[in-house]
């Protein structure tokens, strides 16, 4: 298994198909790490749509999405399910950030969080506008997740560090 990228190292690049729920319905597209828009990217890897912990995690992030936006951050969530599954999940819980389909788990493998036969480890990477990993959390069991307060504090540290430099 690959190792997770170290803090301050380049995040593994990727392009994945994704979907985002909008007021006019789901919009599908391609999401490329290097084209995410310059601000911090919160890259959330979660094991599965419509599972108890994942649902709680992603609902908490979408309910506080404005806090991420105030820091100039974007949230993308990645799991092995396909776009049809993601669209149903986003619709049911009104998730308002892109859900990306890593169906062959190639991106999870590149990030060192793939678990053979089990999927992936619940993980969060904060990637800065230059594509470097600035913070990460990789869960051992995946029964809990990083809350919005923790993530926004880490994002604030990244953006203050960028302004100071």
Structural commentary:
Helix content is 31%, strand content 27%. The chain has 165 residues and is α+β, with helices and mostly antiparallel strands. The strands form 2 sheets. Strands 2-1-5-4-3-8-9 form a 7-stranded mixed beta sheet. Strands 6-7 form a two-stranded antiparallel sheet. The model has no long low-confidence stretch (mean pLDDT 91).
Mind telling me the C-alpha Rg? 15 Å
- Strand and helix order: EEEHHEHEHEEEEH
The outline comes out as: globular
Residue fraction in strands: 25-35%
The spatial strand order of the largest sheet comes to 2-1-5-4-3-8-9
Portion in helices: 25-40%
Number of continuous helical runs: 5
The structure class reads: alpha+beta
Poorly predicted residue ranges: none
What is the terminal separation in angstroms?
35 Å
Q: Care to count the β-strands?
A: 9
Main sheet summary: 7 strands, mixed
Q: Average pLDDT value?
A: 91
Topology, element by element:
Layout (H helix, E strand, L loop, with lengths): L14 E8 L2 E8 L8 E5 L6 H12 L1 H6 L3 E6 L3 H11 L5 E3 L4 H5 L3 E2 L3 E2 L2 E5 L5 E6 L9 H17 L1
Parallel strand pairs: 3-4, 4-5
Antiparallel strand pairs: 1-2, 1-5, 3-8, 6-7, 8-9
Structure keywords:
single chain; 7-stranded mixed β-sheet; two-stranded antiparallel ribbon; alpha+beta; 165 residues
Briefly say what this structure is.
It is built from five helices and nine strands, in the order βββααβαβαββββα.
């Amino acid at each position: 298994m690959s190792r997770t990228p170290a803090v301050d190292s380049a995040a593994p690049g990727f392009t994945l198909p994704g979907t985002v729920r909008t007021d006019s319905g789901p919009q599908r597209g391609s999401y490329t790490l290097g084209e995410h828009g310059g601000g911090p990217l919160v890259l959330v890897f979660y094991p599965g749509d419509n599972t108890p912990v994942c649902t709680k995690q992603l609902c908490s992030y979408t309910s506080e999405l404005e806090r991420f936006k105030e820091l100039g951050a974007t949230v993308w969530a990645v799991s092995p399910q396909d776009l049809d599954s993601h669209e149903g999940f986003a619709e049911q819980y009104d998730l308002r950030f892109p859900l990306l389909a890593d169906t062959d788990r190639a991106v999870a493998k590149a990030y060192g969080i793939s678990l053979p036969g089990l999927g992936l480890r619940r993980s969060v990477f904060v990637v800065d506008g230059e594509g470097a990993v600035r913070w990460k959390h990789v869960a051992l069991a995946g029964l809990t997740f990083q809350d919005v307060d923790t993530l926004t504090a880490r994002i604030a540290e990244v953006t203050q560090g960028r302004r100071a430099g």
